[in-house]
Write a structure and sequence with these properties.
The chain folds into three domains: 123 residues, 3-layer Sandwich (Rieske Iron-sulfur Protein), CATH 2.102.10.10; 224 residues, Naphthalene 1,2-dioxygenase Alpha Subunit, Chain A, domain 1 (Alpha-Beta Complex); 63 residues. 24% of the residues lie in helices and 22% in strands. The chain is built from eleven helices and 23 strands. Helix 2 packs antiparallel against helix 8. It starts with a strand and ends in a 10-residue tail after the last helix. One of its GO terms (molecular function) is chlorophyllide a oxygenase activity. One of its GO terms (cellular component) is chloroplast.
């Protein structure tokens, strides 16, 4: 590898170097870096999982440092990674596929309101064409939301404000108020609904957020990102979805950050014991490195596996469960037990995001066949809740600092932040520094609600999850039944004459009433904590 001299202008852009400019000179603090060198590395990306449009990168640069002492050096996890001069074009947020919802959580009988990139969408099942459709959630008549409508007996989407009906192509097929012998106003272009290109892949509905006619058949030219493990029959893992009160940027960088797991999720996630334990939680240095970064995302590796960020939505990692020697295992290599973490992060609006997740694995697949999905979601939602408040406040603090970029607000000196910095580099270099909302928002974050409302599970998950919604309804019914049985048992004891029932029977009825009442109270608390609000106090765990 050739050693190149790094100019001061290149070093200034490293987030791991604190600089002060005086008389056109850049000063570097000696405690952090003693010597700096820029290495040019030839990288063979033959193990890359995905085929992408455009050329593949062949070269990348990594900025490393020599240790200033005998202790572990603080090395920048990734630098300005440039493959070649062909990746200068800015990322177009509206020329990519976005996941909307898993089809297992969509009811074909009703339209569903969803938001992606600030666009109000309605997802509905067109039984005439046997496919999911994604429309603009606006009736052209008086702009009422079509998601509050219904599917009529002919399989058309009906606006329930005035009864206008639309077919799967967005054409208006009926205006009840128009005279039958009058002009066919329903055929006018102004009466049509905007239709977005959509498709189903990995049992998830995807949308192309540009309704321009040139993209009508975009699925023939460009398909959503393909993740082979999600279609591998030897792997099993149910999906889930949830809305969050913080933005897409915060969501995706948090999922890229394994260093927070022993702390923010203490007691919820099993973590390997480090060789040297410096605290109760067992945090330790992590070897992480971004190997390739371009407009389409980046590839990364760490001690326990490989990771991929596919811009703009997908982050997934492969974990070798049996790995003991600490060497990275890439997807092309064989392993006995493998777990894949798949996260699909959807920008909804400023301060709002949606996550679709799946954790396919090739071991213990029987668990997914026996354990109901809602029971798995209870544990997964508890993990998501344990740092939800932290991330919400974090985003607001960054906004309050009014920093021109994320790197001015945060200090990230270790390798464990490599993927987070890699994502922020991609966002700044190719994504324009933030999600392109097309001027629909001022940029301000919504105000912070009370903690119980902020961490509410019912409206952010349960109502949009078929399994959890059905379980919630069933458990509420059981709660009412237990309360009813308790009241009936006491009533029987009270109204029955003394000589008509034995003391043993009375004692049995009273005991049954007490048990039913106690069970209903316990069940009510269980429902509240697992389907509505479950606080997580880090000071007492």
């Amino acid at each position: 590898m050739d050693v190149l001299r790094a100019s001061s202008s290149t070093l200034v852009h490293s987030p791991y170097i604190s600089t002060t400019r005086r008389r056109n000179k850049t000063q570097f603090p000696k405690p952090i870096f003693h010597h700096l060198r820029l290495k040019l590395i030839v990288f063979d990306s033959s193990f890359t999982l995905f085929e992408r449009n455009g050329s593949k990168s062949r070269l990348f640069m990594t900025l490393s440092s020599s240790p200033a002492s005998t202790t572990e050096s603080i090395e920048p996890p990734m630098p300005e990674l440039e493959a070649d001069g062909r990746e200068k074009k800015r990322f177009d947020w509206y020329s990519h596929w976005y996941p909307v919802m898993p089809i297992c959580d969509l009811d074909k009988r009703v339209p569903h309101a969803k938001k992606v990139l600030g666009l109000d969408l309605v997802v509905w099942w067109d039984r005439n064409e046997n496919e999911w459709k994604v429309f603009d959630d606006t009736c052209p008549h008086r702009l009422a939301p079509l998601s509050d409508g219904r599917i009529d007996q002919w399989g058309r989407l009906q606006c329930v404000y005035h009864g206008w009906c639309f077919n799967g192509n967005g054409d208006c097929k009926l205006i009840p108020q128009a005279p039958l012998d009058g002009p066919p106003v329903h055929t006018f272009k102004e009466a049509c609904v905007t239709v977005y290109p959509s498709t189903v892949q990995h049992d998830i509905v995807w949308v192309w957020p540009n309704a321009d006619p040139q993209y009508k058949d975009i699925i023939m030219k460009k398909k959503p990102p393909y993740i082979p493990v999600l279609d591998d029959p030897s792997f099993s893992g149910p999906t889930g979805n949830r809305e969050f009160p913080f933005g897409y940027e915060v969501l995706i960088e948090n999922l890229m950050d394994p260093a927070h797991l022993p702390y923010a999720h203490y007691g919820l996630i099993s973590n390997p014991t480090p060789k040297v334990k410096v605290d109760r939680e067992g945090g330790s240095p992590l070897g992480m490195e971004v190997e390739k970064l371009d407009k389409n995302g980046f590839n990364g590796k760490q001690d326990w596996g490989c990771s991929y960020f596919i811009a703009p939505c997908i982050y997934h990692a492969f974990i070798d469960v049996d790995q003991q020697n600490g060497s990275a295992i890439c997807e092309t290599e064989k392993s006995n037990r493998r777990l894949c973490l798949v996260f699909m992060c959807i920008p909804v609006s400023p301060g709002k995001s949606r996550l679709i997740w799946s954790f396919p694995k090739n071991f213990g697949v029987w668990i997914d066949k026996i354990v109901p999905r809602w029971m798995l979601h209870i544990g997964q939602n508890l993990i998501l809740d344990s740092d939800l408040y932290l991330l919400h406040v974090q985003e607001h603090k960054v906004m309050q600092l009014e920093a021109t970029n994320w790197q001015e607000a945060c200090f990230v000196p270790t390798k464990s932040d490599a993927f987070v910095v890699g994502f922020r580099r991609w966002l700044n270099k190719y994504g324009g520094g933030t999600v392109d909302w097309k001027g629909k928002f001022s940029g301000a974050l919504p105000p912070s609600p009370p903690r119980e409302q902020l961490m509410d599970r019912y409206w952010t998950h349960v109502v949009s999850c078929k399994s959890c919604s059905a379980a919630h309804k069933g458990l509420k019914t059981l709660e009412v039944m237990l309360q009813t049985m308790s009241v009936i048992s006491i009533g029987i004891v009270v109204v029955t004459k003394q000589n008509m029932i034995s003391m043993v029977a009375k004692s049995t009825m009273v005991s049954m009433a007490i048990i039913c009442f106690a069970a209903s109270k316990w069940l009510a608390q269980f429902i509240y904590k697992n389907f509505h609000y479950h606080d997580y106090n880090h000071a007492f765990v």
